[in-house]
């Protein structure tokens, strides 16, 4: 599997590039900013980007959605509970704004949905709390956790629609049951494993 983490934008958002080496079909997760960097990376891998998947609708994860969508024509996938945010993203942000119209969702995701990237099957896990439509994405031992679970930390819950107890419950009931070796790839900061988070995360 082709899998790369790019750190983009003023809030150092982790954008992930996923690619199937057999079919050269790819996807971008959370194009937060720096669209040219994301597009260059897709090009360097010679990937045809089929999907733009959003772990949630916060502005630091969608700042380059417009640019990547325009350049690739990829379908935009987001959980149904966060999809309305693409209509009016600035209402849900305290400090960042976008000044252009965002592409809208082509497909609304629900818990348990499968996303087929070439021969790679990724599963959608609904983990509300940081935002109502927050999702994690899992393929084998790879778990993209958005702003729900970070290395030794958890997401904030003070933004509109956030709920700390709901988020902790999502992490405990939906994520911590995975194998200790499962590698987590958060929306910000370094990567970790489920085993390390179970032992050392002070919020859990
Ligand atoms: Zn967020
Ligand atoms: Zn974020």
Automatic annotation (TrEMBL):
Its needed co-factors are: Zn(2+)
Which molecular-function annotations from GO does this UniProt entry contain?
Answer: hydrolase activity; metal ion binding
Q: Does the keyword Hydrolase apply?
A: yes
Q: Which Pfam families match?
A: Lactamase_B (PF00753)
EC class of this enzyme?
hydrolase
EC assignment: 3.-.-.-
Question: What top-level branch of life does the organism fall under?
Answer: Bacteria
Keywords, sorted A to Z: Hydrolase, Metal-binding, Zinc
The residue ranges of the Metallo-beta-lactamase domain are 12-188
Q: Which SUPFAM superfamilies match?
A: Metallo-hydrolase/oxidoreductase
This chain's protein is named Metallo-hydrolase
């Amino acid at each position: 599997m082709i899998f790369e983490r790019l750190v983009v934008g003023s809030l150092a958002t982790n954008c992930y590039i996923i690619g199937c080496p057999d079919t050269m079909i790819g996807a971008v997760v959370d194009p937060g900013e720096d669209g040219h960097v994301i597009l260059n990376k897709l090009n360097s891998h010679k990937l045809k980007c089929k999907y733009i998947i959003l772990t949630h609708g916060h502005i630091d994860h969608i700042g380059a959605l417009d640019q990547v969508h325009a350049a690739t024509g990829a379908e935009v996938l987001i959980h149904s509970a966060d999809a309305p945010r693409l209509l009016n993203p600035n209402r849900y942000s305290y400090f960042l704004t976008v000044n252009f119209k965002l592409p809208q969702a082509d497909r609304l995701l629900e818990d348990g949905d499968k996303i087929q990237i070439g021969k790679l099957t990724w599963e959608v896990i609904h983990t509300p709390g940081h935002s109502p439509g927050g999702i994690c994405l899992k393929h084998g031992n790879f778990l993209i956790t958005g702003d729900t679970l970070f290395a030794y930390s958890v997401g904030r819950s003070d933004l509109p629609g956030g709920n700390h107890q709901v988020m902790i419950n999502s992490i405990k009931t939906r994520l911590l049951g995975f194998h200790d070796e499962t590698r987590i790839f958060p929306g910000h900061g370094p990567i970790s494993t489920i085993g390390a988070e179970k032992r050392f995360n002070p919020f859990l």
